User: What shape does this take?
Amino acid sequence: MTPQLRAELLKLRSTRTNLGLFSAMLGLVLLVVLLHGFAVPAERLSNRVTQLNLVFGWAALLASLFAALLGALSITGEFRHGTIRPTFLVTPRRGRVVLAKVWASMLMGSIFGLIVATVALGVGSAVLATRGVAIRLEGGDAALLLAGCAMAGALWAAIGVGLGAVVRNQVPIVAGICAWLLFVEQLLLGDILGGVGGYMPGALAKAASGLGGDPVIAPGLAVLLLALYAVAAAAAGWVATTRRDVV
Amino acid sequence: MSATRAESTATEPPLPDPVVSARSLTKRYGEFAVVEDVTFSLDRGTVTGFLGPNGAGKSTTLRLLLGLAEPTAGEARVFGRRYRELDEPARRVGAVLESNDFDPGRSGRNHLRALALAAEIPPARVEEVLELVGLAEVAHRLAGTYSLGMRQRLGLAGALLGAPELLVLDEPANGLDPAGVHWLRGFLRRLADEGGTVLIASHVLAEVAQTVDQVLIINRGRLVATVRLDELAGRGRTLEETYLELTGRTTL
Assistant: This one.
């Protein structure tokens, strides 16, 4: 473990920002799983695919969203509060700082993903059981959802760090990530782009968790493609951070 | 005789690099030069004031020295190397550029611990610098609750973590109470007497006049004078007169 990674892990733990993100994520997953679990008519929840997509699968979207915010805040927060100056004075080889932020955020993002998937599975199953709806998940479904959410959390955290390093400003990056995952990709691109929409990073997070999609992308391939987005974003962040002045 | 001399020349160690050197340092944003052709060097054991009106280019020069900004032309070196190429920068250079570079939601102690981890400085040193700047009692509190003077002290504590030989401070006395200013002066003097080097940017002349050995005066991006304070006193001039004359602000 590099000294910079130790420092970044302490930074992530030593403010309430990430506790706040974590609480918001838990609150939202409870809300959407309970709402859908109780409100969707029982006949629409009769098979595995609809149960995954309408009840349990929300974990993938929320893992991606909150991990991306966590990653983005880890770097934009430093620019906002000016801590980037002491950070770069101590570690003037800035690439090391970006890399440490990527790894630290990926670790935290994967934990976020694991927890949100666990909660979705637990609460979703309890709700369906309460309503007397038979749970149709198959053997590997729960494991795939857990693993997929962990991967989506890790990779979206890296995307967040990379984009945050490019944009530097907190408000547009937070608004941009929320808008992209909750509106742009979900509502617009799916209709306009058709099949290509499945290759957008938010859709890949769902595919990685075994939620199908259009076209259906195998979870392994989805992780690989999402990793390409993460590498591209992190590389852009690395270049922007090493080349641009800090005022 | 001549052989002896030749021998002594051969074994003479090379001149040590100046602690800080700027050579034709220039920073332009588009057509506008914030810093233009600034050349100076600082020797070990000196306290140097870096004076100039607001917007004269002081802070930009410090950022160029410390590798936060890249010069458009010329170069800046510390201990003979570009700052970004220093091996353990925190153990050689300590700097405070702004008085408020903290996450308000992180405790003073954790702020320092994160810096210490990145610099591979043991946690015991964090407690030492907290004692040194008088923040040990409040180190558990969130930095957002600190007064301006406490923030200055926390910034200084961060700069001192690695017990550096060079200290670069931008407006360090801003917000310190008189006791704090007095303490800071004594501290900087001791550091220089022990062979350390200090560069203080300021626009408050009185604060600098009592602390420094020499001043660099910068105006509109250009270095207009390097003045030793003892020489100035010998000529019966005050720093204020010299400064106002050189920066063209006599007819305000």
